């Protein structure tokens, strides 16, 4: 599959716009997925994913064919999404640590209301609950968790996509995982 | 083993697949002994299972078509842009020509004042430069934005920019005698520059000959 994509990229570089269609079709779900899980609303996710593909197309000549295309494409998508998150009004109040406690945030105070009776949890509801919890993470943890668990990318690849050292990726994965453990323990 | 620090760090390393044999044994031993860490480990594993097993999102149906419809059209201009990107020398040449020609054009439009190269014994009257009778001008003569009337003699080349050469007789009678007298009036070449393209050509020629004379000086 990788070689098919490489061939298509060569054709796009030569000016064949229609070859780009296969690339979009192949990666659309992954890119949309990353954007959606990071931004949390499908309208914006579609907008961001579309923008990511258009940027990839207009900058295709700066793509180094010796590297992995998906890494490059995901990098465009995550950068766009992170920029969008930054521009939005930050709503970290639920994440802010409560002063004088060790790692307790406002979520731990609300937990009782949010825990749903297990018999009532439909699979879909559980899914959206998990997505909500991922969205509640601060963006820097959110991005690594999305890439690590929803796309099951290797730590090295995540480091390349986000342009941070592998050690930092690991630290963020650990912290993100701990934060989610606290939020999902009653599920 | 310190539960909070070490054991939890080992759990995360385990989940990243970074644990070596020795660490794995230590973690296992600790988990068997410590109830709190056991449940912590269990929760972590359950969390990763939960987030791994969420359904992948599907892009909207007409996503690909929308992207394709919004792509910029392949334009000639983009091709030029790419050409300049991939050939820096071309860019340098283009910039050089733009600067050179804009310099020449601005010099053309600069001043409408009559200017004459530095020579003695010249008279300037109503935008006409006169070489008086009986006077011999030594060296090349350049007249800008004015006409030239030669009554005496010039020993060298004559260049007239944006002007004409006017014959010696005020009544403007043209005869063979005038031709011969004018021919005798200067010893070098006569160059007249009246149009902007001539001006450009004149400048370019000057530049090229400058370059070559620099070369020959060395």
Automatic annotation (TrEMBL), chain A:
Residues 27-89 form the RNA polymerase sigma-70 region domain. Pfam families: Sigma70_r2 (PF04542), Sigma70_r4_2 (PF08281). Belongs to the sigma-70 factor family. ECF subfamily. One of its GO terms (molecular function) is sigma factor activity. This is RNA polymerase sigma factor. Keywords: DNA-binding, Sigma factor, Transcription, Transcription regulation. InterPro entries: RNA_pol_sigma-70-like, RNA_pol_sigma-70_dom, RNA_pol_sigma-W_bacilli, RNA_pol_sigma70_ECF_CS, RNA_pol_sigma70_r2, RNA_pol_sigma70_r4_t2, RNA_pol_sigma_r2, RNA_pol_sigma_r3/r4-like. One of its GO terms (biological process) is DNA-templated transcription initiation. The gene is sigW. It comes from Halobacillus salinus.
From TrEMBL, chain B:
The keyword GTP-binding does not apply. It holds the Pfam family zf-HC2. The keyword Transmembrane helix applies. Residues 5-38 form the Putative zinc-finger domain. This is Anti-sigma-W factor RsiW. Belongs to the zinc-associated anti-sigma factor (ZAS) superfamily. Anti-sigma-W factor family. It comes from Halobacillus salinus. The chain crosses the membrane at residues 83-108. Keywords: Membrane, Transmembrane, Transmembrane helix.
């Amino acid at each position: 599959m990788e070689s098919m994509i490489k061939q298509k990229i060569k054709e796009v570089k030569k000016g064949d716009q229609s070859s780009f269609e296969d690339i979009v079709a192949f990666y659309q779900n992954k890119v949309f997925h990353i954007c959606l899980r990071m931004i949390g609303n499908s309208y914006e996710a579609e907008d961001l994913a579309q923008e990511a593909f258009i940027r990839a197309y207009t900058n295709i000549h700066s793509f180094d064919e010796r590297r992995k295309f998906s890494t490059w494409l995901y990098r465009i998508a995550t950068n766009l999404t992170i920029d969008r998150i930054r521009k939005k009004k930050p709503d970290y109040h639920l994440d802010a640590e409560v002063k004088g406690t060790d790692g307790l945030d406002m979520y731990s105070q609300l937990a009782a209301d949010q825990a749903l009776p297990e018999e009532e949890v439909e699979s879909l509801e559980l899914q959206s609950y998990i997505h909500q919890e991922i969205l509640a993470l601060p963006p820097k943890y959110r991005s690594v968790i999305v890439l690590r668990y929803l796309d099951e990318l290797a730590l090295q690849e995540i480091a390349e996509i986000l342009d941070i050292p592998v050690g930092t990726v690991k630290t963020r994965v650990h912290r993100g995982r701990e934060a989610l453990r606290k939020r999902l323990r009653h599920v | 083993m310190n539960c909070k620090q070490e054991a939890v760090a080992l759990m995360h390393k385990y989940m990243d697949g970074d644990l070596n044999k020795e660490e794995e044994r230590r973690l296992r031993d600790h988990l068997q002994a410590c109830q709190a860490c056991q449940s912590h480990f269990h929760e972590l594993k359950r969390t990763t299972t939960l987030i791994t097993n969420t359904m992948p999102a599907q892009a909207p149906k007409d996503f690909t078509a929308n992207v394709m419809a919004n792509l910029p059209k392949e334009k000639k201009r983009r091709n030029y842009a790419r050409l300049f990107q991939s050939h820096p020398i071309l860019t340098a040449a283009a910039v050089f020509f733009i600067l050179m020609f804009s310099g020449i054009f601005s010099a053309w439009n600069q001043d409408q004042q009559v200017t004459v190269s530095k020579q003695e014994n010249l008279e300037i009257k109503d935008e006409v430069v006169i070489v008086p009778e009986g006077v011999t001008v030594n060296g090349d003569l350049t007249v800008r934005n004015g006409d030239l009337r030669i009554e005496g003699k010039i020993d060298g080349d004559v260049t007239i920019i944006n002007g004409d050469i006017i014959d010696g007789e005020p009544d403007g009678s043209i005869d063979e005698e005038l031709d011969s007298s004018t021919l005798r009036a200067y010893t070098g070449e006569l160059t007249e520059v009246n149009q902007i393209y001539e001006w450009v050509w004149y400048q370019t020629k000057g530049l090229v000959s400058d370059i070559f004379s620099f070369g020959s000086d060395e």
